[in-house]
Amino acid sequence: MEKPTLPAFVYRISTADEWAELQRTGATLGGDLDRSTGCIHLSDLGQVKMTLKNFFLGRNDLYLLQIDTSKLADGIIYEESDDNKYFPHFYGPGRSFVPLKLDAVVKADKIELENDDFTCSLLDGSNLPC
């Protein structure tokens, strides 16, 4: 499979603490997984619900951040996951692992968990697969 063309937006599933840090300081290096792998893990919109169900089930402290890819320059790289799907990762220029900056965030929505289903305005009505 060929890697996808860079879309206008990618999405970050962010904890409330991470979103607060981003608003307070203007940047974040993400969570433990991001710091240990040296990149900020992102998703395309069609991947968000699957990622939520696979890694965040039961959490009610999440936000979905819509990220403008034009603000991330050449720092986004699509990499294949275990199931032959490509996910966007933000490394920064030259894979230098730079922080995700607040000015790249177009919109932030609180994700609600109702009956084991995640919902927010960025996801609602989009008929995305779970």
UniProtKB/TrEMBL annotation:
It holds the Pfam family DUF952. This is DUF952 domain-containing protein. Signal peptide: none annotated. The lineage of its organism: Eukaryota, Viridiplantae, Streptophyta, Embryophyta, Tracheophyta.
